[in-house]
Specification:
The protein is 49% helix and 12% strand. The protein is an alpha+beta fold. A hairpin with a 2-residue loop joins strand 5 and strand 6.
C-alpha cells in the first residue's frame, strides 16, 4: 500500500514553506523561488497533493496552488508562520519525521528502542538527533527523548500528518473503516471488510477468536495494522481486545477465549505487550474476575452465570 512512511523531501518542504507564506502561487512562482526546473516543481506538487497538503485550482488561464484545508497542512502553515526564522526544510527532511513521530507517541530513551518502532536504522537515527539537537528541537528528559516545548506546534503537525496517513491507509483497505485506536504507525480499525494478513493488516480482537476455538458471527471486523508485525499471536489478539471499545459484547467472548486457551497463553509475553499498550490493568481485571468466579464486580464484564451458560455452548470448562 502507498504512503505508509511519514516523510517529506527537502524540495517538498521548501515548496510548502513558500506556499505557507505566500498563499496562492503558480508553478512559475515556485520555480523562481526554488530555482527548480518546472518538471521538478510539478513532480513535487504532485507528491504534496497525494499527501494531502495542497489543492490546485484555476484562476484565469494558469492553475494556482494553495494549501488544502487538511489539519496537517494548516498546522504546517501555522508552524512556518510562528517560527519563520527556522529553515524547516533543513531539519525535517529525510528520516526526521519518522523518528519524531515515534518519540511523540511513546517514551523511548535509546536508539535501539526507536529503531524497533520505525523503519529507520540506528546510524540514521543518530544523524537525525545530531541535526535536530543543533536547533533545539529534540531534548532528553527523564531518560526519554521528547520534542522541546518550544516546538510544541511541530508535535501537533506530526500527530496530524501521521493521522492523515493512517486514515488514508485504512480507507484504501476498506472505504467504511473507522480507526478505533492508533499509536504512531500502528492502528486498529473496524469495518465491514474481513481480510486476514492482507498487506500490513491482520485480523485481531474478537474477529480473530475463531483461530483459537471461539467462532463468532460478526457483522463488522477488527484489523490491526503495523508495518513491522508479520503475524500476530494469541497474546496480541487478547491485548488488542482491550484497545477497542469495551462492552459485555466483546468481553464475554474474550473470557471464553482466555479460559479455552489459558494453558497456551504466554503470560510473560502478554504482560509485556499489555505494558507496551498501557492496558495492564485490564489483564489484572480478567484475572480478578476469573479468580473470584465473578464475585469481583467489574464494569463491562458479564454476570458469572451468563459466562457459564455461554461456556457450555462452546464446550469451554469454567
Amino acid at each position: 500500500m502507498a504512503l505508509n512512511k511519514l516523510n517529506l523531501t527537502e524540495s517538498e518542504l521548501k515548496v510548502l514553506e513558500i506556499i505557507s507564506k505566500a498563499g496562492n502561487v503558480s508553478v512559475s512562482h515556485l520555480c523562481d523561488k526554488t530555482k527548480f526546473e518546472p518538471s521538478m516543481v510539478r513532480r513535487t506538487v504532485a507528491s504534496l497533493d497525494r499527501k494531502g497538503f495542497i489543492r490546485k485550482h484555476r484562476v484565469g488561464l494558469p492553475k494556482e496552488i494553495s494549501l488544502s484545508d487538511s489539519k496537517h497542512a494548516l498546522t504546517f502553515r501555522d508552524m512556518v508562520l510562528e517560527a519563520s526564522h527556522v529553515p524547516f526544510h533543513k531539519y525535517l527532511s529525510g528520516s526526521s519525521l519518522e523518528v519524531l513521530s515515534a518519540i511523540c507517541s511513546m517514551n523511548l530513551g535509546t536508539r535501539k528502542e526507536i529503531r524497533s518502532h520505525t523503519s529507520v536504522s540506528e546510524p540514521s537515527i543518530a544523524r537525525v538527533f545530531l541535526k535536530l539537537k543543533r536547533v533545539g528541537i529534540v531534548q532528553k528528559r527523564e531518560s526519554a527523548y521528547v520534542i522541546s516545548p518550544a516546538f510544541g506546534i511541530l508535535k501537533d503537525f506530526i500527530v496530524e500528518f501521521r493521522h492523515y496517513l493512517n486514515q488514508k491507509l485504512a480507507k484504501e483497505f476498506s472505504q467504511n473503516s473507522v480507526i478505533l485506536w492508533e499509536r504512531n504507525d500502528e492502528f486498529i480499525i473496524e469495518s465491514d471488510t474481513k481480510k486476514d494478513d492482507e498487506g500490513n493488516f491482520h485480523l485481531t480482537g474478537p474477529s480473530a477468536f475463531g483461530r483459537f476455538g471461539i467462532q463468532l458471527f460478526m457483522m463488522n471486523s477488527y484489523h490491526y495494522h503495523s508495518p513491522r508485525a508479520k503475524k500476530i499471536g494469541l497474546e496480541d489478539v487478547i491485548a488488542h481486545s482491550f484497545l477497542i471499545p469495551r462492552s459485555q459484547r466483546t468481553m464475554l467472548p474474550l473470557l471464553l477465549v482466555w479460559k479455552k486457551n489459558e494453558k497456551d497463553i504466554d503470560r510473560e509475553r502478554l504482560a509485556n505487550i499489555s505494558e507496551k499498550y498501557g492496558s495492564g490493568k485490564f489483564i489484572d481485571s480478567v484475572n480478578d474476575y476469573l479468580n473470584t468466579r465473578g464475585r469481583q464486580k467489574i464494569d463491562e464484564f458479564p454476570e458469572w452465570e451468563e459466562l457459564k451458560s455461554k461456556a457450555e455452548e462452546y464446550g469451554v470448562e469454567i
